[in-house]
Amino acid sequence: MRLLEHMTLLNTLDWGAAAFILLSWFTIGWLIEHPGAKRPSVTILMAERRRDWMRMFVTRDPRIFDSQILMSLRQGTSFFASTCLLAIGGVLALVGNTAPLQGVAAEVIDMPVPVLIWQLKLGLVALFLTNAFLKFVWANRVFGYCAVVMAAVPNDTEDPRAYPLAGQAAELNIRAAINFNRGLRSMYFALGSLAWLIGPLVLIAATIVTLWLVWSREFASLPRSILLQEDL
Questions:
Q1: Of the candidates 2, 144, 152, 182, which lies 20 to 30 Å from 138 by C-alpha distance?
Q2: CA end-to-end span of the chain, whole Å?
Q3: pTM score, two decimals?
Q4: pLDDT of residue 113
Q5: Closest CA to 132 of 229, 43, 29
Q6: Domain extent listing, the chain
Q7: Pick from 198, 181, 137: nearest CA to 44
Q8: pLDDT at 148 over 80
Q9: Beta strands in the chain (DSSP E)
Q10: What 8-state DSSP symbol labels residue 38?
């Protein structure tokens, strides 16, 4: 009963703001991975470059350069996964001790906010961070699969297995990159969801800023313009 009483402290605007950031996170992710043919995202453009990479990989000898690239990609996923773990630990520590937040809130508003409300708002942050961590871990794993398949690609370009195996490696590389990008988006929205601690209107504003940031980097960035340039 007391739980229900505390939940009523979150008004319709609060719930609407929380739903808005979740819907925005899902929608922008879908648009990035399923853009129209006339306006491809950086993610889609890079997928084609990854396929080009694996086609060139068949004819490259030695293949040290390729292994170094793949190692760098795996190190990136490991770094962000570790970062997410630290961030999740920090959020959970704050969930267990909301006194610092209550002290700050007491200076801003007169009405005391129950601990449950703070924990609920921090739970949204933890949700995004947990999703990001799982995506980074899976991306690291799939990059590992890609490395094994790349090692199985014959050095002989006349071997009938060479290009099919290289194609498999390319698709695994693309899936790993997609999961890595999903993890990054979740981290962006985790930062945006912190605004809910201030209030629902601030959360809505932060969500709009996060949406613009993610959209612009995929559809209106300088790297995208470079990728769209014709071969010189």
A1: 152
A2: 69
A3: 0.89
A4: 62
A5: 29
A6: 40-226
A7: 181
A8: yes
A9: none
A10: T
